[in-house]
Input
Amino acid sequence: MKRSKNQAVYKFLPETWVSERNESNVAVTAKIIKWNYDKMQDIYDDFIENEIKRQIELFGKRGGDITSFDLRDDVHSFCIVEPKCLEGIPDIFGEMSPLVFYCSSCGHVIEKHYASDVDRYVWNCTNPDCKKRHSVKQLQMIYACECGFAQGVRIPFLKGHHDFKYHPNENQFKLFYKSGNSEKSIDIAMICPTCNSRLLPDNANAGRNYKAFTLCIINLVDARSGEFYKKGEEAKKAIIAKWFGKMSQAEYETILDNVAEVFSERLRTSTQRKAIEDKYNAWIEQGIIPRELADTLMQQEILTLQTNSLSIERYAKACDIIFAGFRNMNSVVYREWLNNFSFKLMQYNTIKYARRTITLEDSINRQMEMDFIESAQDVYRLHKKMGIANMQVSSDIQIVNCTYGYSRRAFDPKKSMNKNCRLKLNAYDKTKDGSANLVYGAKLDTEGIFFEISQKKIIEWLRINQIIREEQVPDLNDDLAVKKWFAEYVHSDEISMFGDVDENESITKNVFGLLHSMSHAFIRMAGELSGLSSNSLTEIIIVETASIFIYAQTSQGIPLGALSGMAEMRYEYFLRRVLEDSRNCVFDPICTDRDDTACSGCLIIPEISCNHFNAELGRKYMYSIDGVRSPKIGFWEM
Output
């Protein structure tokens, strides 16, 4: 059966078990062994690899085992690949597993040693006393452990006994055998050969047995941006300086058009200074001018030097000046922050300045032409109430889905229940030359709706709910001060894809909880109004800029312009419905009695659509709900 590349990335990954029906319409479970792959082209590997390493390090900081990976900065540790998609040649290889079969009529159990031993006769019961010959089923259960070990279920060894029966309706974890005139049972459990934990079999297809760690990263489709970012720390500082208003979009475009010149030594003040020093020193040696006079004239000329308007130095210096205190306090942490912050801003810029956009003004004008709204104020009032600073549709956005590892039984090391081992993040196989671990990926060209939430209103909301103190509030009339406050107090490096934010990070926890909850409210309503299925939309949250990007993760809605059409013609109606429908849950009052005030009836969406395993969600962030300890006042009810 043919599968799309994105289906492969989400479901048909190596070391997982999947079920399909064979040509006889019998459900068969198999273990995925490998892909027939090619290295993914036209992506910026370093850009993606840095974020993969950061996420793995976060897993380690939470107590997880990350020994499968090489995270050294100077090592190229990952190779992003995708299915070859050659006509007539399989892209995904698997083999039947487990190899234990039982008769659903008499319970007779058999086991094959190799997948190649399984033939069409295996489905016929070999028990001569059984009256139903075609009732054999595969025992679709596996053993899986948090240490990473997994294998198909096996018949346990019991000396002197080989004839077992399986009666799942009686006990799915036991096999039965005759001992004299009585029937006895034996557990199908096994001891993990890696960590000595006792393992019970589980459904082979259960999601808990294979937790894929996938990043959704916006690809830098503009080659100029990729080349610029590759220039290193100075480029990262310049990107941050742009966010803080020290560089215009026009200046940024000029830099992108002249990357080689911008980073050239010729334009650096240090190079110009050395040229001046060399000139005067030569004159001194030649006796043209005395040293004292030469020193005076040299210093005067050096003081007249100005940074070239095209040089990267001025922008890198601007970033260092804004965060001088942070830089002086801990230069190592400052560099780590530069990597993370600039990475997010590059994605923000790619969405914000997409090749094709529908602006808020375009949407308003279209709705007024169609008589869907009476005036622009209908939209602006809702924006003000919901704290939306801007909305636009961004098209021709390329998303790279990258699965770099997996865990078993749990996804957050802090929630691991196994006392014999740490939760392990398992790496995939090495490339053929053994130089890097494989990362399984797929590219998706898509469109989405980009929401920029008011950072100023978020700070006001935090203050009203006493999450921050009055003296922590910046000058809310100073945009630079607001952005700097967000950069200093909202620690996005504490937000990972696999768990809740630590309680000690109360500001980050509440800001992310608010943005994540708003995102899910938008996704649920956008799916309903655009006609896309609930698992066809997903999210990217950029906490640094308080931005939410919801987009179609299948090609189903893109040719039809499902999202763009909804945002262009029904945006005001969309906002009203989000505001009204997200307030209540079909499972109230049970849901409101939960401290997180989130369930499948209101904010929880299919796991394939959420990049954070549905963590940090709650209607309490948006609405004031009686009995909730914090926050007391909802963001949409200020």
